[in-house]
């Protein structure tokens, strides 16, 4: 008898008025970068993660490491954080288009690969490492895999799951609002002159 296999797939479709689209065109030098914390890996970079933890370090899903709570399996299965409620609240509050100028979901690559997609010509981003806590799982992966730090920021979110690029004049009020919504948010950098690059300093 022939076997059958099933694959589930899901997607979402949305609609927005053209004048309300946030496409990054209004981003300019001096704008502030706000990072919202991730819960961990966010199901991203698992080819590298499996190679390091399972093939190279010879761990398995039941292995425990002092640096993290629970097992490797528990850590890898942590749900991806969803930011829609907080972002929607911000957009309703700051209706002017030039307050929140750009947004980047840090998935399918890290900070270095995702942020340039929303930058206009003439702009780059300078991010200061150490402005947010990096979850221990990333440190474990880097150490056991002997991975260059630059590669880590290319492939993994390193503790930042969503980035907002906002007007510097509103950055303090946006941070206060995010804190009131119980979001772990950090000012992690700024927009500088450049050619759509991310500089980690």
Automatic annotation (TrEMBL):
Pfam families: AIRS_C (PF02769). GO terms for molecular function: ATP binding; phosphoribosylamine-glycine ligase activity; phosphoribosylformylglycinamidine cyclo-ligase activity. The keyword Ligase applies. GO terms for cellular component: cytosol. Residues 29-197 form the PurM-like C-terminal domain. Pathway: Purine metabolism; IMP biosynthesis via de novo pathway; 5-amino-1-(5-phospho-D-ribosyl)imidazole from N(2)-formyl-N(1)-(5-phospho-D-ribosyl)glycinamide: step 2/2. GO terms for biological process: 'de novo' IMP biosynthetic process; adenine biosynthetic process. InterPro entries: PurM-like_C_dom, PurM-like_C_sf, PurM_cligase. Its EC number is 6.3.3.1. It catalyses: 2-formamido-N(1)-(5-O-phospho-beta-D-ribosyl)acetamidine + ATP = 5-amino-1-(5-phospho-beta-D-ribosyl)imidazole + ADP + phosphate + H(+). CDD domains: PurM. SUPFAM superfamilies: PurM C-terminal domain-like. Belongs to the AIR synthase family. This is phosphoribosylformylglycinamidine cyclo-ligase. It comes from Candidatus Scalindua arabica.
């Amino acid at each position: 008898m022939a076997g059958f296999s099933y694959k589930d797939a899901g997607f979402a479709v949305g609609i927005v008025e053209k004048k309300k689209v946030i496409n990054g065109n209004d981003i300019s030098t001096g704008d502030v970068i706000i990072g919202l914390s991730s819960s961990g890996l966010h199901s991203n970079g698992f080819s590298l993660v499996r190679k390091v933890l399972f093939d190279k370090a010879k761990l398995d899903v039941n292995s425990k490491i002092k640096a993290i709570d629970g097992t490797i399996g528990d850590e890898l299965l942590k749900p991806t954080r969803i930011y829609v409620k907080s972002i929607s609240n911000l957009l309703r509050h700051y209706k002017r288009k030039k307050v929140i100028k750009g947004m980047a979901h840090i998935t399918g690559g890290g900070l270095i690969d995702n942020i340039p997609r929303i930058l206009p010509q003439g702009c780059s981003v300078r991010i200061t490492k150490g402005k947010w806590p990096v979850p221990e799982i990333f440190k474990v992966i880097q150490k056991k895999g002997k991975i260059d730090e630059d590669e880590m920021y290319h492939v993994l979110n390193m503790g930042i799951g969503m980035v907002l690029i906002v007007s510097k004049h509103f950055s303090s009020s946006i941070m206060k609002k995010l804190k009131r919504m119980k979001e772990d948010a950090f000012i992690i950098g700024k927009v500088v002159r450049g050619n759509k690059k991310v500089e980690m300093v």
